[in-house]
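Summary for the steering committee. One of the milestones for this cycle was to obtain a three-dimensional model of the protein with zinc ion bound, which we needed before selecting residues for the alanine scan. The sequence and ligand used are listed below.
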Amino acid sequence: MIPAKGFAPSLQATRQHRRIGRALADLRRGLPVVVEAGQGALLAHAAEHLDTPALATLREAARRDGSGQADVRTFVTAARAAVLHIKRTGHSVVGVRVIPEMDARTLRDLADPATDLDRPLIGPFEWLREPPGEAALAAVKLAKLAQLLPAMVVAATDEAADRLAGRLDLIALDPKTVLAHDEYAARSLKPLGQPVRLPLHDAAQARIQAFRPADGGPEHLAVIVGQPDRHAPVLARIHSECFTGDLLGSMRCDCGEQLRGAIRQMDAAGGGVLLYLAQEGRGIGLINKLRAYRIQDQGFDTVEANLRIGFDADERVFLPAAEMLRLLGFDAVRLLTNNPDKVAGLEACGVTVAERVPLAFAANAHNEFYLDTKRKKSGHYL
Ligand SMILES: Nc1nc2c(ncn2[C@@H]2O[C@H](COP(=O)(O)OP(=O)(O)OP(=O)(O)O)[C@@H](O)[C@H]2O)c(=O)[nH]1
Ligand SMILES: [Zn+2]
């Protein structure tokens, strides 16, 4: 059994994490958030929502340098910086100085790969070689948590975070809390009542159970097929949500077939557990996955498309899956997957993967290249 690690956050920590949910809603509706940065703060705006008045607010709030220029920067991930021909800095997040000639549209384009080929950006950009502070890392993490493009335009201010947030009626966050949020959300998962009966087309004896994190973030689901034995490794599938494949039957991927195939295999084996994780698009969210599809239609593969947007090839964390297994009473699994990272990710969270059980279906004309890329670039066994 995975040690429960005595999850008992302080009231203060709980308050901070709940604030993140409110901050994400603000970012998604086009408002900035405040991130503590030493004595001062960053006023951070999601790049994809930046318009002219928002940029003016950032310029007004920013401290001035010796020449009177406002200290506004746009922070992008190393992957996006590479697309912008910014020399490798060795840091995961890179700051680009926002000079007075840059307008809101330029800053949106800097973040958004959609126009890369039609309207190539004119550099070179003035980027900062120093490592980004914790506050800048937290700002970019917030964009990812909000499932927006992973780029933030920020003003560095000398005003204390609480004062600035109070004055502008915004949410102030501590960067350490933001950076620890994934772990908090996973460890705070709680089952919602008892599993409820859900006869499925492929498994008549099935039940479904929802798990909710304390921060108000997305719920994850577990489908328990049959009566799995708690004393032996359980046949398990960790399946990341794929609206297009699971629900619509998209032929761009193999998700729908894997989902139903896994349930059939569990039914045939007399029992199993399928964890359905709210991690659409390998953790980048549905809208960003649709952006990735558009880039793939320009000739890039699935990994390149993620990187051009500024994400890693895979942004998922497997701690929620491990926690759900623990809460369901399973400590060892026979994992239905072709993905070596899932095996390693789950084991790193304390779940024993006793066996990897392959899950393969014939390719179609639309997903052949996708499956080939999984094999060649992501090391999938297929
Ligand atoms: N970013 C991105 N996500 C994709 C793409 N195609 C499918 N996905 C997502 O990938 C996830 C599918 O992952 P899984 O079914 O867990 O598959 P996997 O990581 O390949 O591993 P196994 O299926 O277990 O071998 C879903 O969240 C899909 O939405 C794509 O082209 N880009
Ligand atoms: Zn899919």
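Key point for the committee: The chain has 16 helices and 14 strands.
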